[in-house]
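[Automated response] Your request has been received and processed.

Submitted sequence:
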Amino acid sequence: MALALAAALLASAAASAAAEPAAAAGATRAQTTAEVLAASSPADWRPLDPQNTLYLELPAGRVIIELAPLFAPNHVANVIALAREGYFDGLAFMRSQDNYVVQWGDAQGKKPLEKARRTLPAEFERPLRGLTLARITDPDTYAPVVGFLDGFPVAADPQVGRAWLVHCYGMVGAGRDNDVDSGGGTELYVVIGQAPRHLDRNVTLLGRVVRGMELLSVLPRGHGALGFYQPAESGVPIRSLRLAADLPETERTALEELRTDTATFAAYVEARRNRHEEWFKVPAGRIDVCNIPLPVRPLPVTHDR
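Generated structure:
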């Protein structure tokens, strides 16, 4: 009897062991970020709009900035006007603060303007009404709601009906003095460190760097207060700042970015939230809005038949 019972137990264990691989084989394996992007379709991507793309030309190469007119229309229009006037040509970076920002503009504030304005009313936030965010469900320390809209990281407060751009790595803002309306785009900065979210709704954000961050993050650090260059130090010069639409197509950099209103983007966020690449042993199970770098790639070449 004991032998029969033992045999039955062994048979049951063998059956269970055989069933486990079968069940595992039938389960859907979690995707990596690379697999999500590889499985994307052309409809999941959108080309950068040359009417809202700036090329910042430095001695080391080109920095590409996508503008956000939905959140800062007046500042965006003013920066475009400044670019068309050649305002930034020949200026230089005047600040590089470690783990914070780099900033450029006219350190003396005396370079003449044509049609552009030196100051504008602040555009720290805008109405939430009419906006549909690709919401990130993970809790956020700084806002009730966070997500993405047209590729930009966004925070919102439904209780007061307001939304604003978020200070993630690579975001571009307009420097100002103490007066909230003292900025306008004649001084611009880029976040090069851990997201300084305490700046949200205190500075007008107007765009983000989509390519060329490696040229900004390595700029020599300034030794003055807040990383400003001291008189003996020299900032990297700016060759030019141009709107992509104002250049011939042959001189543009054709890029496209992953749309944030797609199922593919949702899958990409999940793959970032729980990393399943072989190197990762413990998936985090959470994600921060500033820890979701938006994929950007060269626009595929098409040939007319």
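Summary generated for your ticket: The helical segments are 2-26, 33-38, 73-85, 213-216, 263-273. Residues 33-298 form a domain with the Cyclophilin fold (CATH 2.40.100.10).
If you did not submit this request, please reply to this message.
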